């Protein structure tokens, strides 16, 4: 083991700091071969190399993955020349910002030339300027916890650089800016959203002066592109404590800029008056949905849980009996989710999935509350499965998570009713191919039987048979032919 990190003069005094550095040492040793080889390449070329930013922070926190960030005095073209022979793969997509991407074994490395940007105070776009000193690079980073560096040499990790108190910040689990937060956020307003993201990801809190600056400067987040905002929101939602990250956004006003519908739920009282408001209900559902995840963090499920009730404030009605209703809030909410996610430039698939889950989240309620038949017909169960399609496992989790009543008996009743629904689905699925509900006759047979050419009438017949299939389950071939013929004759000569 290399003798390195602990040699740092400004951390010698504290046992807790020594412990953190020892943890970092272990994390870095896992990448020892790559670090030594890379250190050799830079030493031979006469350049300096430092592991930096999130990688150093994550090593200290024992959560370093295979993404490693470096900074160097070498310019991008020099980097390309130096690394060409060593890297498994090279990417230059970030070259105008001074970044070269490298694939080596399982590791993905990003190596960025020291930056010493100035900010155009009108457009606030950084003018990329390269620097010569590590300290100038560190001071322009977003948070002190992200502004530490470890020198990498041919012997592996070397001395630890922490001119801005990053180690103390990691120790205290606090996010603070290297300089005054107002200046930092004015230079790049995205940093404000990154604060909320790190609150979720790292479970840190935010320094009081940073909170003040967030409140004051939140509207400036408007200047940031939808793509950059969405990337941070996704990381926030996928973090360890998205509820804390979202609540920081909402409390400081960042949410008003990028996700106003979520803070907007603070106004509406939920129908059972069980919770402070729909906003806290939604955050509880998000937390409960996360608890139900079985296969790692699920971005679609988390988005759907957060947004499932955003239609409530605009559909709230005070009823004559003194109650409150939110009729069709799932329909309105699905539309609102679609609109917001489109504005944030999400993929069509992502938008379709999240809005469909929002749309379906309420349907189960007719099953359990004894208002309907108490138990759905087979047809209703088939429709539930068909409408959810591949989203069904997520819908199960969302609906179960959407029970936040503190009445234990009621909660147990709802979960038992959902168990019952899942059992019904399994029962029907064993009898029928529920995952692929299709009409019992295909388009070619419809054309042959009715003696009609391809066209809208075939589609109409196909949809009729699909509805029948949903209502009655699979029909025999003869039954299907008989039903089709009956429908066609009753339909007469209408044209479509
Ligand atoms: P993760 O990789 O988990 O997303 P990270 O901290 O590595 O977290 P990146 O977005 O990869 O975050 O950025 C790498 C480093 O670059 C950060 O740790 C920080 O030092 C710096 N950085 C990134 N974005 C900014 C920014 N907008 N302003 C200032 N510094 C930034
Ligand atoms: Mg990173």
Biggest sheet character: 7 strands, mixed
CATH class of the largest domain: Alpha Beta
N-C termini distance? 79 Å
What are the low-pLDDT stretches, counting only 5+ consecutive residues below 50?
Answer: 6-13
Ligands: adenosine-5'-triphosphate, magnesium ion
User: What's the overall average pLDDT, rounded?
Assistant: 91
Strand order of the main beta sheet, please?
A: 3-4-5-2-1-8-9
Beta-strand portion reads 5-15%
CATH superfamily of the largest domain: Beta Polymerase, domain 2
The CATH topology of the largest domain: Beta Polymerase, domain 2
What is the general shape?
Answer: elongated
Q: In total, how many domains does the architecture comprise?
A: 4
What's the architecture of the largest domain in CATH terms? 2-Layer Sandwich
Task: Say how many strands there are.
Answer: 13
Query: Helical proportion?
Result: 40-55%
> Helix tally?
25
Coiled coil: 411-438
Cofactor: Mg(2+)
EC number: 2.7.7.72
GO molecular function: CCA tRNA nucleotidyltransferase activity
